[in-house]
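Section 5: illustrative case.
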């Protein structure tokens, strides 16, 4: 029995936005088992300098991550999309066991199978030390905030909708 995780490729702007929002919502639960169900059983990941294969490794990785990253809150933004690929930029805030707050900035490249499960994830992430007063992300995104709204970080770049790009 095959698993199905709509929306499925090929992506449109609307379905790519829905996929990004679903991923953001799932990651904000900090439930490794729930998050891992969005990936193929043999998914391949690169997260910073860590390489993972399969849901079991992803689940263990996420469980350890959220043991370290307290009060984790994430925002993802659609950057570009193609037939079976989506690129996102994101930021999340968290604090460590000593109470130091961090804002992590990153980019992800996603590739999906025909059932809408992610078969490949590549993430590049940088961490910036912040004070608690500098926090911008307080819990999951409100339901009335658009899925393509930026995560609150002024980038100095012109805004605009994500566009379909050849991501192959």
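Designed sequence:
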């Amino acid at each position: 029995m095959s698993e199905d995780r709509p929306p499925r490729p090929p992506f449109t702007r609307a379905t790519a936005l829905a996929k990004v929002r679903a991923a953001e919502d799932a990651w904000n639960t900090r439930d490794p088992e729930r998050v891992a169900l969005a990936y193929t059983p043999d998914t391949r990941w690169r997260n910073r300098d860590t390489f993972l294969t399969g849901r079991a490794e992803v689940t263990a990785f996420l469980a350890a991550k959220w043991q370290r990253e307290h009060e984790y809150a994430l925002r993802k933004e659609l950057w570009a999309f193609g037939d079976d690929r989506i690129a996102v930029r994101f930021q999340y805030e968290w604090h460590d066991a000593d109470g130091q707050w961090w804002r992590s900035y990153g980019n992800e490249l996603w590739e999906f199978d025909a059932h809408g499960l992610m078969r490949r994830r590549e993430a590049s992430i940088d961490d910036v030390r912040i004070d608690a007063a500098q926090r911008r992300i307080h819990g999951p995104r409100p339901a009335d905030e658009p899925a393509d709204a930026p995560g609150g970080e002024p980038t100095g770049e012109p805004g605009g909708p994500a566009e379909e790009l050849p991501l192959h």
